[in-house]
Amino acid sequence: MPASDSATASGDTGRGGEATTSGEPVPIKAIPLRRPGRWVAAAIILGLVGLFVYGAATNPAYNWDTYGKYLFDERIGRGALVTLELTVLSMVLAIALGTLLAVMRLSPNPILRSVAWVYLWIFRGTPVFVQLVFWGLVPSLYKTIALGIPFGPQFVQFDVQHMQAAFAFAVLGLGLNEAAYMAEIVRAGINSVGEGQREASVALGMSWSQTMRRTVLPQAMRVIIPPTGNEIIGMLKTTSLVSALPLTTDLYGRARDIYGVNFQPIPLLLVTATWYLVITSVLMVGQYYLERHYSRGASRQLTAKQLQELADAQTIVKAK
User: Fold this and answer.
1) DSSP class per residue in 208-244
2) Which of 95, 47, 86 is nearest to 231 (CA)?
3) Sign (positive or negative) of CA dihedral 198, 201, 207, 213
4) Which of 259, 226, 253 has its CA nearest to residue 240?
5) How far apart are CA 250 and CA 241, in angstroms?
6) Rounded to whole angstroms, what are the CA distances from 146 to 21, 159, 263?
7) How many Å apart are CA 99 and CA 183, to the nearest integer?
8) CB 178 within 8 A of CB 235
9) What kind and span of H or E run contains 320?
10) CA angle, corner 198, sides to 197 and 204, nearest 5?
11) Domains along the chain?
12) Which has more pLDDT, 24 or 177?
């Protein structure tokens, strides 16, 4: 067949939407649906944001020169470091204790279940600020803490009033409160694992604790990690309540001390918000990669590396 006739036939078949001369279907040219409402909404939002930014930039009450002066102040930096320490230590305590409480709630032992339920009832039923105030009053409740035999020799004794342990009490208060919420998160993750997994572990001769440690908890991580990341971010912001103890070395406490002297709370609060926002953004990035690590195998969608390996394997099979 001449080249012109072949081209005509191919073009006619393509316009008919059937198949080309090679037998492959003609790709469909999709035309996206126009949505002018989206552009109108975007323009309105951008206009409102622009007006707000312009108003804030030209409003002298914001005191942007003071904001720039204290944004990288050494005292603010030390306060941010204390806030990170409070967050990390409190969450380590909360995760460890929350996992233990979740296992206790799911235990066949009724005493362990009751103890865990009472703990959750107390710490979830009272505000965290009230709990922190209580921890700040511990030196007034207990002058000394002694470990030993009642009415007998005392092996260790602590003078609580002279310990100056506001930081330790802040970690305890935040960690014990957060443990009640982490317990429910871990319990939901454990319950998400099918009963067949537990039955198979029992059939292999594992005890209840071994089943939890080796089979259930590793699979429950996919459900536990996302809300745990949210709790860490929430804990970062909850540390601003440690002033109830009182503890003034955290980020918000440092900013409060500064604007208590220069009487400019607005720029110092903006500095605090900026630091919280930066730290939260870093934590969100870490949460994303941690979720992606534990979600491997949970989706049927293959990654680019897996697709390339599959294509290479098919090439090897065809070559043979």
Assistant:
1) HHHHIIIIIHHHHHHHHHHHHHHHHHHHHHHGGGGGG
2) 95
3) negative
4) 253
5) 10
6) 92, 9, 45
7) 6
8) yes
9) none
10) 95
11) 82-249 (1.10.3720.10)
12) 177
8 Å CB contact between 218 and 197: no
Q: Tens digit of pLDDT for each residue in 176-218?
A: 999 999 999 999 888 888 778 777 887 888 887 788 778 887 7
Question: How far is Cα 137 from Cα 44, in angstroms, rounded to an integer?
Answer: 52
Query: pLDDT tens digits, residue range 35-48?
Result: 888 889 999 999 99
Tokens 């009642």, residue located? 150
H helices of the chain, in order, are: 3-16, 36-58, 64-70, 74-105, 110-125, 128-136, 138-141, 166-191, 195-203, 208-211, 217-238, 251-262, 265-294, 304-319
Amino acid letter, 178: E
